[in-house]
Amino acid sequence: MDVTVFSTRGYDREFLDIANSAAGAPHVLHFIEAGLSKQTVALAKGATAICVFVNDRLDRTVLASLREQGTRLVALRSAGFNHVDLEAAETLGIAVARVPSYSPEAIAEHTIALILSLNRKLHRAYVRVREGNFALDGLLGFDLGKRTVGIVGTGKIGATVTRILGGFGCRILAFDPSPDADLVASGVEYVTFPELLQQADVISIHCPLTPQTHHLINGQALQLIRPGAMLINTSRGAVVDTRAVIEGLKSGKIGSLGLDVYEEEGDLFFRDLSDEMLQDDVFARLLTFPNVLITGHQAFFTREALSAIAETTIRNISTFETTGQAEYQIGTELLA
Ligand code: NAD
Q: Taking a C-beta distance cutoff of 8 angstroms, is the pair 55, 271 a contact?
C-alpha cells in the first residue's frame, strides 16, 4: 500500500522502516517532515493510507480532502485519538486505526521521573553543581513513600504508575469512572474526584482528552487541592487549564508542576526552535517558575515503545489492506 507518513522525524523513519522490512516490505512509505493540516493535505495525494502523530490535525475539512484524494485509512502512531474527528471519518468512509497499547511502562516511568525530579529538585541541583554551587538551600524534598498520590485515570498507564508507586510505599488514591478491581485488591483506594484533589500530595493525570475531561484541572479544581500539592500531567495538554495553573503557581497553591504535554504544544513540540523567539507567552510564563519541569511530549520516547508503535502501525495497514479492517480500527463507539 502507498502510505504518506506525516510529521516524520529520523527516529520515526528508522523504526517504521525496520518494521516494514520485517513484515516483508509490503508497503511503500513516503516520509515527509511536515505535519498534516489543510495546507499540507495535498502531499498525501495518491496515498491509500496516511500515517500521523499526535499534533497532526484531522478535522472534517482535512478528512474530506483526504477522501477526495483517495485516502481510505488513517493510521495513528498513538493511542490517543483526540486529534481526529471520528464522526467525520465515519461519515466519509475513512477507516481510522491506532496503537492502543505500546508501552505503558514508558509513560509511567517518565511520570515517576518527573515526580522524583521535582520533589528532589534534580533540575535545579544539576545546574547548581555544574556552576560550583553546592549549597542545599531550596532543594528540600519529602519522603515520597510517606505521601498520598492521587491518580486520575487508571487505565493502562495509570495502573502501571500505581504499581510503581506501590513499591515506594505510597498511599494511592484513584479516580476513574471505571474502577479496576485488581487495583482495589492491590490496595488502591477509589475516591471521588473532589476527594482525590483534597487528599493527594501528588496528583497525576492519566485520563484521555475528551469533551468531559477538557480543562478537568481548572480554577475550581485547584481551589480543592492541598496547598503545595504537586501536579503532573503526562496525558494530554488540554486536560489542564494552563492559565489557571499559572495562577495556582503564583499563589503557591500548586507546590510544583511537571508537564510532558501542553495545550498549545502543536506549535512548539518535536522541533528545534532554539534559534527562534518564543511566541507563546503562556508557555514562556511557565518557564519562569523554578518549581516547574516541562518535557516536550517525550514520555513515550523509549526504544521499546517506538518499536511497538511501528510494528502495530505496519500491522494496522497490512490487515486493512488484506481484510478491509485494520487490526486496531476505532470508531465513534469510543466517543460514548
Ligand atoms: P487507557 O484507555 O488505558 O486509560 C484511560 C483511563 O482513563 C480509563 O480507565 C478511563 O476509564 C479513564 N477515564 C476516562 N474518563 C475519565 C475521567 N473523566 N476521569 C478519570 N478517568 C477517566 O489509556 P492509557 O493507555 O492509560 O493512556 C492514557 C492517556 O495517556 C492517553 O489517552 C493519552 O492521551 C496519554 N498518553 C500520553 C503519552 C505521552 O507520551 N505523554 C503517550 C501515550 C498516551
A: no
- The grid cell for 248 is 495556582
Q: Are strands 73-76 and 49-52 parallel, antiparallel or unpaired?
A: parallel
Distance from the CA of 278 to the center of ligand 1, in angstroms? Answer: 30
Question: Is domain 104-294 classified as CATH 3.40.50.720?
Answer: yes
What's this model's pTM, rounded to 2 decimal places?
A: 0.95
Q: Count how many Cα atoms sit within 13 Å of the Cα of residue 32 in the half-sphere of its side chain.
A: 20
Is the domain 2-102+302-335 a CATH 3.40.50.720 member?
Answer: yes
Ligand 1 pocket mutation pick from 192, 207, 218, 300 by most atoms within 8 angstroms of CB: 207
Q: CB of 314 within 8 A of CB of 16?
A: yes
Answer left, alpha or beta for residue 327, where phi above 0 means left and psi between -120 and 50 means alpha. alpha
CA distance 111 to 234: 7
pLDDT by residue (tens digit) across 262-311?
999 999 999 999 999 999 999 999 999 999 999 999 999 999 999 999 99
Give the integer Cα–Cα distance in Å for 170 and 181: 19
Cell readout for 298 is 517525550
User: Which residue ranges have their beta carbon within 6 Å of ligand 1?
Assistant: 79-80, 101, 104, 107, 152-158, 175-178, 206-209, 212-213, 234-236, 260-261, 297, 299-300
Task: Tell me how far the alpha carbon of residue 205 lies from the centroid of ligand 1, in angstroms.
Answer: 8
Write the ipTM.
Answer: 0.99
Residue-wise pLDDT for 216-265, tens only, equals 999 999 999 999 999 999 999 999 999 999 999 999 999 999 999 999 99
Considering the chain, tell me which residue range(s) the CATH 3.40.50.720 domain(s) occupy. 2-102+302-335, 104-294
Yes or no: say if 217 and 189 are a contact pair by the CB < 8 Å rule: no
